[in-house]
Amino acid sequence: MTAPTLTHRPPASGTGATLEFRGLRRSFGTTTALDGLDLSLHPGELLALLGPSGCGKTTALRMVAGFEIPDSGEVLVDGVDVTGTPSHRRDVGMVFQSYSLFPHLSAADNVAFGMRMQGVPAARRRARAQELLELVGLPSQGGRYPRQLSGGQQQRVALARALALEPRVLLLDEPLSALDAKVRQSLRDEIRRLQLELGITTLFVTHDQEEALSMADRVAVMRDGRLEQCATPEELYNSPATPFVAGFVGTMNRLPGRLSGHGGMVDVLGLSRPIQGSLPGRDGTADVDVLVRPEALTVTAAPDGPAQLVAASFLGATTRLTLRLHGGREAVADVPTAHASTLPTGARIRLGLPERPVLIDQARNEETA
């Protein structure tokens, strides 16, 4: 994955609701699902909760919906504590991974179901359902049943149903994971367009980093029930706050390095670079891993270079080079294809780094201590 290039528009001022988690904790037996989660969503913002399975992101989403009650902590919508409010009174719309459409109802009736439960007159229900089906690109599919619709169409109906009651907060629980790649990308763009058009505050749960980085205004990366970092996609990719975030978001090389023992510097690839963030908890020299993105590595052919080119993968304008370092460790570098074409397999390579701070991981130091 290359660095995100999408320009994320700031949420429209005054639209949507604020959503806030305060010290949420939830355990299931001996398993801690949430361990003091603090997080806020701005009005009209789309925030993605990203992390591996079991990190707590779905538990957090279900607490907003009212399907889970925290052991402690609060969920606030527009400053009002809704932690103890029944789910049907929270003014929250939810789109599930499995669509969850009623199979015996037509698409239009599925969209209108919530309005029927609230006593909205039939004529208004029909008109509103048709408006929403047109909004999600299904103007002529209202009479069809779920079994007659594709997966992508069913998810659009589910989205329209969630929007029918004009909720203050929209929850998306991995809504694209059951779709094939082409449909997933198309619907991803459509959801983002609708979210921006409506200005609705949206919490989106996913384990797919590409979805999170391409859709969200901000991404909150979770691990073991805790928040590791919450930032814009660009900041998350270019300035990860922790080694976990660096390794989870995008591709990251782990290059052998050694703390120089003075001035917050690390020696890597025969170069000396300043360290980003705090130093490991020990003085003097120590072996560490230096975390570097593939596109940050510069590659130069050199007869005495310490690395060797072992493979090249054509990616269009760029080519990904696989390099074997001294000691057998491998690294990858993304370079312009025109430059890669001048480097034969087996060539000796010298690697370089930009003159900017690098993130280090002290785990290697701890394992060998």
Can you characterise this structure?
This protein has 369 residues and is an alpha+beta fold. 25% of the residues lie in helices and 31% in strands. The protein has helices spanning 57-65, 107-117, 122-135, 151-163, 181-198, 209-215, 233-238, 243-248, 337-340, 363-368, and strands spanning 19-28, 31-41, 46-50, 72-77, 80-81, 92-95, 169-173, 201-206, 218-223, 226-231, 253-259, 265-268, 271-274, 287-292, 298-301, 307-314, 318-324, 330-336, 348-352, 359-361. The strands form 4 sheets. A 6-stranded mixed sheet has the order 6-7-8-3-9-10, sandwiched between helices. Strands 13-12-11-14-20 form a 5-stranded antiparallel sheet. Strand 7 (169-173), helix 5 and strand 8 form a beta-alpha-beta unit. Helix 2 (107-117) crosses helix 3 (122-135), helix 2 (107-117) runs parallel beside helix 4 (151-163) and helix 3 crosses helix 4 (151-163).
Quick recap of the structure?
The chain has 369 residues and is α+β, with helices and mostly antiparallel strands. The protein has helices at 57-65, 107-117, 122-135, 151-163, 181-198, 209-215, 233-238, 243-248, 337-340, 363-368; strands spanning 19-28, 31-41, 46-50, 72-77, 80-81, 92-95, 169-173, 201-206, 218-223, 226-231, 253-259, 265-268, 271-274, 287-292, 298-301, 307-314, 318-324, 330-336, 348-352, 359-361.
